[in-house]
Backbone:
């Protein structure tokens, strides 16, 4: 990358360290942090959206809709994340390819043949001819959808509980004012439930951050993959031979995650103070007394 | 109409148009000198150069992907890539689930890497990578086996004292012993396991296998394969080659 690094075996000391830390593989490693942050940035709002829909469905007065919401929450919450991840990514991928094969393949043979999953070449998602970046993006996309579905169920449960925690009297008063069901939901229930949901959502955000190494399980080259790959001892076959440095790389990840979750904790504490203002909760009451 | 819409949506989703087919080569990327990820972040090693040469001869466009060793066969079957190029020995057990090309590396010996030259292999577990011929060999020969997902971890296990020795391909262990500063040594005792290394294909991919088989044969015939094997950065001049046996039927 840099002229000074043209012959890594002949340099030492700080120059070596500098060249080592800017090698192509290290740049990939730094990028993988961006990938993880990007995943969080997409997954969190998606899970929040799915969770909100799930909770609303579970509270619905229409029985089948309510069942659907409850079954979703029950199923995802009851299955270990890792199993759901391993199962869902393969199921989603093969399901998608099966649907596509119905449309584009001749003959339409049943694809699950013995040990192999076989669809015609045109039905592959992404196509075999697509560049590697498409395959990576597709893998990451599957991961995002799976994360959103799994965490959506937890979010749904938190929001469902928060909606039930809004004092009944508030809703009755609204009804007494002549608001219909939809108006009560939009004007009274939703604005008030956030303050009850926030501690639970904050917890889920922490768990979501800590769950990102699951990406590694899905074959996405995330920070755990690179830490292990870079830290492993390297013989002279490599440009920068070194001993087993995995401990230091994993220590780096540990610090990264700790710093990230600490920062999140602070943001949530601040958000909670803001939302409690003027609310009929113990937090809001404490703030009112302090001001008086 | 519905089908048409679905097809359009999925074709758009899958990105590229029906361009020239790309053959995806799957490897582990953690087993020098066979295959590893170099410092530029690319697949390198003997199999990189060998695989690229095969694709050139067969007139195919190829692309490299890496996959964990323990799921390398299932992911071939589910179509994540088309060929396994990962120093995989041809065994009967594997023949039952995938098809192999002809061998491209003659059966090489496996060696034991230990902390001392007089280590007793029966005194504790011997480490090997999961689902390798070495792991099966240890178990079959009455030693206790302890398996790890990556070759790296097997060596670390010996350093930590969790295992008495590692059994792995000698070509992988030699540089590790040489560069350990005397900490790790190879035992005199070696094992001849496996029937040579071949490319792995799905059972249904006979046409592709045929193309690669022809390319391997042509590399054996003009001697380029042997020349590549004995290069210093790969298996050194001491390595077994195909020699005249490889030129039969050229």
Residues:
């Amino acid at each position: 990358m840099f002229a000074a690094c043209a012959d890594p075996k002949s340099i030492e000391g700080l120059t070596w360290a500098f060249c080592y830390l800017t090698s192509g593989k290290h740049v990939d490693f730094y990028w993988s942090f961006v990938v993880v942050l990007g995943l969080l940035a997409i997954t969190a709002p998606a899970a929040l959206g799915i969770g909100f829909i799930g909770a609303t469905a579970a509270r619905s007065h229409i029985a089948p809709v309510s069942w659907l919401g409850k079954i979703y929450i029950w199923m995802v919450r009851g299955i270990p994340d890792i199993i759901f991840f391993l199962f869902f990514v393969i199921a989603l991928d093969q399901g998608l390819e099966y649907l596509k094969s119905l449309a584009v393949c001749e003959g339409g043979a049943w694809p699950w043949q013995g040990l192999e999953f076989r669809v015609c070449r045109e039905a592959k998602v992404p196509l075999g001819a697509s560049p590697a970046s498409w395959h990576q993006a597709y893998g990451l996309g599957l991961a995002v959808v799976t994360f959103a579905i799994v965490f959506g169920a937890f979010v749904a449960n938190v929001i469902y509980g928060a909606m039930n925690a809004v004092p009944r009297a508030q809703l009755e008063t609204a009804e007494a004012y002549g608001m219909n069901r939809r108006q009560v939901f939009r004007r009274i229930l939703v604005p008030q439930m956030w303050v009850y949901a926030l501690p639970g959502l904050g917890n889920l955000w922490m768990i979501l951050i800590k769950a990102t190494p699951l990406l590694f399980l899905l074959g996405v080259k995330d920070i755990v993959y690179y830490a292990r790959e870079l830290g492993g001892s390297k013989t002279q076959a490599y440009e920068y031979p070194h001993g087993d440095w995995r401990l230091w790389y994993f220590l780096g990840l540990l610090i990264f995650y700790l710093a990230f979750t600490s920062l999140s904790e602070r943001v949530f504490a601040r958000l909670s103070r803001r939302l409690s203002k003027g609310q009929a909760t113990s937090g809001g009451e404490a703030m009112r007394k302090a001001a008086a | 109409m519905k089908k048409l819409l679905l097809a359009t949506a999925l074709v758009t989703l899958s990105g590229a148009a029906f361009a020239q087919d790309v053959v995806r080569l799957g490897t582990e990327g953690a087993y020098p000198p066979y295959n590893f990820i170099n410092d530029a972040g690319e697949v390198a090693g003997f199999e990189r150069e060998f695989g690229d040469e095969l694709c050139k001869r067969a007139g195919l466009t190829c692309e490299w992907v890496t996959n964990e060793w323990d799921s390398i066969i299932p992911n071939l079957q589910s179509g994540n890539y088309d060929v396994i190029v990962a120093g995989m020995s041809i065994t009967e057990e594997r023949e039952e689930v995938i098809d192999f090309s002809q061998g491209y590396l003659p059966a090489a010996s496996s060696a034991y890497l230990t902390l001392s030259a007089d280590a007793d292999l029966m005194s504790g577990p011997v480490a090997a990578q999961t689902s390798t011929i070495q792991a099966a060999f240890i178990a079959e020969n009455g030693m206790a086996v302890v398996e790890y997902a990556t070759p790296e971890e097997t060596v670390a296990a010996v350093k930590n004292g969790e295992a008495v020795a590692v059994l792995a391909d000698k070509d992988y262990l030699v540089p590790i012993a040489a560069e350990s500063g005397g900490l790790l040594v190879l035992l005199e005792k070696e094992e001849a396991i496996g029937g040579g290394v071949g490319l792995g294909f799905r059972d249904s991919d006979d046409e592709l296998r045929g193309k690669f088989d022809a390319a391997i044969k042509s590399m054996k015939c003009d001697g380029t394969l042997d020349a590549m094997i004995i290069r210093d950065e790969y298996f050194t001049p001491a390595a077994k080659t195909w020699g005249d046996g490889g030129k039969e039927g050229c």
